[in-house]
Amino acid sequence: MKKPSTVTIREVSPRDGLQGETAEIDTEGKIELVNLLASAGFPRINVTSFASPKAVPRLADAADVVAGVIRRPGLELDASVPNLRGAERALEADVDTLVVFVAASDEANLRNVRRTTEESMVESEAVIRLARASGKNAVGTVSLAFGSPYGDEVTDDTVVALADRFVAAGATGLSLGDTTGEANPQAVFDLVSRLRAEYPDVELALHLHDTRGLALANVLAGMQAGARHFDGAIGGIGGSPFTKDSSGNLATEDLVYMCATMGIETGVDLAALPSINAFLETRLGHPLPGRLGQFMRGSEAASA
Ligand code: ZN
User: Looking at the whole model, is its pTM more than 0.90?
Assistant: First the structure.
């Protein structure tokens, strides 16, 4: 079977993962989570979002969280940035990578941030240019890249046109978000193949949700088409509170386990994940949805 020798896993539980939760984790807890993830070997972590503190009060501590994280060599911290003001705050906090996002569905973009996709793109281009001028990486995310829950059509041409704008503005990476789990392996293979051919030098990441149980199959299809960067959230937590039908991210345990058993290097210590799963479960006050995470914790308890 054709497979990469190495892939990069980006852990998104601190930001995407926590945003759908009702329980709030305090600043110290968020810092502890990021440091635990870094200790487990995750090379990239989506730490926070520099959203307006007025609009999203629970993210008002974004700069404090970044400041509290132990900066290890090789660890890349990224933050989601919804606008130029957020970009200035992210740069002040010295994150390594600024992540911008637009939805391939205009309807979803309007509901999410009350702007059209075009309006969000114009602001995203300005953020990317500012990040690059400041010596930082910039990743352009197209969310709902594989379909919209609102019934409007999303085609590969739509996604590629948005990706073109990100790259032209200077993006160092592109990420395809399947926020509501609409993708299937064929669709992933086709879109990733097309973007890989168009931009061989731009990092291409897949951000997959497991709404319909296809996330891991979609990872495998993405690998076949040349994607080498994949997102996951411990225990499969997450989902946008602003988007219809959004549910958990691909569980990181599933992703790390699949790679480990297939001989694909990730640098992540699988054995360190049950304790992080337990940490989150305690803080969030409910079992996390990912099945493998629960199984690993069960078998760990049985052998203790
Ligand atoms: Zn997500």
Answer: yes
